[in-house]
Amino acid sequence: QVQLQESGPTLVKPSGTMSLTCAVSGASINSNDLWPWVRQSPGKGLEWIGEIDRSGTTTYNPSLESRVTISVDQSRNQFSLRLSSVTAADTAVYYCARKSYNWNYAYDYWGQGTLVTVSS
Amino acid sequence: EIVLTQSPGTLSLSPGERATLSCRASQSFRSKYLAWSQQKPGQAPRLLIYSASSRATGIPDRFSGSGSGTDFTLTISRLEPEDFAVYYCHQYDNSPPNTFGQGTRLEIK
Prior knowledge:
The complex is a heterodimer of chains A (about 120) and B (about 110).
Chain A (H helix, E strand, L loop, with lengths): L2 E5 L3 E2 L5 E8 L9 E6 L5 E7 L5 E3 L7 E6 L4 E6 L8 E9 L5 E5 L3 E5 L2
Parallel strand pairs in A: 2-11
Antiparallel strand pairs in A: 1-3, 3-8, 4-5, 4-9, 5-6, 7-8, 9-10, 9-11
Chain B lengths: L3 E4 L2 E4 L5 E11 L4 E6 L6 E5 L3 E2 L7 E14 L9 E6 L7 E2 L3 E5 L1
Parallel strand pairs in B: 2-10
Antiparallel strand pairs in B: 1-3, 3-7, 4-5, 4-8, 5-6, 8-9, 8-10
């Protein structure tokens, strides 16, 4: 059974940098799948942040690209998100997920999500 | 960027009725990269349909998807109480970025 679990600080100060890690179990990061981050502001819809493949190649949402870094750690079977210069607008539930190569890159597994609040 | 517009915003129906949810794209894309997901309060989205019309593992056959180009539809043939939730369409063909529709809330009438 594939499981993804987000972890990291849930309270970040304005202008600071948030960091989250997604631990993957039941599947290997070293596969043809893609590993995205998606966020959802309170009461709002879903926003794709970016994604990474096993070689570390990344694609980012142009609206966030200047502030986002996604990285992968194959030895730990996890991938990470860093978002710099955060503001209250970055307060959201952050999800990591898997886009399955076998299913035309559909988002077949999601983490439970973690609420990150930007506040002083 | 492909903008996905879902309609209606809210759909009020009773258990046993048929639900038809629409997703319209601002430009055409390959239907193999269109999916539908269901989200319940406090939960992550759950994949229902991928490649526009293929059901994900464990999804009941009352859920079906159709469409191509710019117009896609999710149909729930007979609503069960557990089907009342928010439904999102999303595309990952023309990327970056992947985009999601704003969601259709399916509520009990």
